[in-house]
Amino acid sequence: MWSFATDPEFQEQLDWIDYFVKHEVEPLDHLLGSQWNIHDPRFKKLVRPLQAKVRARGLWACHLGPHLGGKGYGQLKLALMNELFGRSRFGPIVFGAQAPDTGNAEILAHYGTPEQKKRFLEPLLANEIVSCFSMTEPQGGADPLVFTTRAVQDGDEWVIDGEKWFSSNARYAAFYIVMAVTDPDAAPYKRMSMFIVPAATPGVEIKRNLTFYGEPEATHAYMAYKGVRVPKENMLGGRGDAFVVAQVRLGGGRLHHAMRTVAQARRALEMMCERALSRTTKGELLARKQMVQEKIADSWVQLRQFRLLVLETAWLCDQGHDYKAVRKNIAAVKAVMPKVLHDISERALHLHGSLGLSTEMPFADWLVNSYHVGLADGPTEVHKITVAREVLKEYEGTTKLFPDYHNLSEAERAHDLYDALLDELGE
After folding, report:
1. CA torsion sign, 342 to 261 to 331 to 144?
2. Topology alike, domains 8-112 and 244-392
3. Is residue 88 within 8 Å of 21, Cβ to Cβ?
4. For residue 224, how many C-alpha atoms fall within 13 Å in the half-sphere facing its CB?
5. Which of 104, 209, 228, 408 is the most exposed place for a label (fewest CB within 10 A)?
6. How far is residue 308's CA from residue 159's CA, in Å, rounded to a whole number?
7. Which of 1-15, 31-45, 175-189, 294-308 has the lowest average pLDDT?
């Protein structure tokens, strides 16, 4: 059992990651554009040498097994790594752990045929290419059952027609993993299948590139698939297995995003503390103001609670290697994450005054990102419902007029248990 201490050998690696990210990776955030634009000459000049250092350290793509060039680390080790390199926008790609490529790689590793692995997985793992996950549609994201993108079999090919919304990293992707309806009359969660669609396939159209506030350029896309033909061999997994395939990428991904959120929130707390110890008003440091102290205390406790929840969830994942078994915990992590980032970023912004509100500081970007993490991979409301339903499975109701925990019922049981002994005392 993990006992709140890391073995010395792995701690040495974590210490190296911490120093390396702060001193060599973070500066890239201020020099380069999109971290997915791997063909930018500046990316090749600055990022590739850092990736080589990570490879030499044996820390490249550690979520993958040794047969794929990784360490096969469990979720707990991965969580501890992600909270360090998550400080930087370029951290994940320097360590071969950037979304959506990690999730797509896991899908390909799990369900891909030897030919699919050779063509798509191997260059993806080497970061020779990047990829896209194309699932959400304009009319709905949280409810995949309303998706309308269709794939119809025509001989040895599938023909895909439809639109996809906010397809992650479509702009620079070499291929897309697309969810499409193949059997509209089947059971609800057997209607859709997954397909690998090379970006150069005729009929693939980026209607427009999209971005979030705080990102340096638009890399996601509103997509149209118009009569897109792919060979039947490009189906990923079995027919009707899209939901099963998708789950492979979502469980671990949510934990990794959570620990990167920990990293971002921790940076906000660090800035808040430095500001409080540097800024004087009304004759004393902000750090001496009780309401400022409250903000710092609340932020530290909130961050600590969230981090421990994520680490516990990661540990549980490692015990059973079954995301479904820890569905409640993963949903709880996802539900809590946006509030933690929002609250701590807001307090840091407030303590920095007008400087904090300006584009010269990152707090407004982080506040927007708190809404981003509250929507990506399913909105907060959906995950809260999941938590509640999973918790309720552990309990039973009663048909009695008053519950068993009613004080009078508890007192009656106490008397039944101990009255005879009390009678021996003559009382």
Report:
1. positive
2. no
3. yes
4. 7
5. 408
6. 47
7. 1-15
pLDDT tens per residue across span 342-386: 999 999 999 999 999 999 999 999 999 999 999 888 889 999 999
Q: What is the pTM of this model?
A: 0.91
Q: Is the peptide bond before 216 cis (omega within 30 degrees of 0)?
A: no
| Amino acid symbol at 300 | W
Domain 244-392 has CATH 3.20.20.150: no
Number of separate helices (H) and strands (E) present in the chain: 14, 10
Asked whether 94 and 54 are in contact (CB, 8 A), the reply is yes
**30 CB burial (10 A radius; 0-12, 13-18, 19+):** exposed
Q: Could you give the C-alpha distances from 3 to 13, 326, 345, in angstroms and in order?
A: 19, 20, 30
The tokens for 257 are 């995003």
Least confident of 34-38, 110-114, 249-253: 249-253
* CATH class of the domain comprising 8-112: mainly alpha
Cα distance between residue 55 and residue 35, in whole Å: 18
Report whether CATH 3.40.50.410 matches the domain 131-236: no
> What percent of the chain clears pLDDT 90, i.e. is strictly above it?
81
Q: What are phi and psi of 277, to 5 degrees?
A: -90, 0
Domain ranges of the chain: 8-112, 131-236, 244-392
Hey, which residues does 13 pair with through a beta bridge?
A: none
User: 136, 125, 139, 143: which is closest to 170 by C-alpha?
Assistant: 136
Write 392-400 long-range contacts (CB < 8 A, 24+).
Answer: none
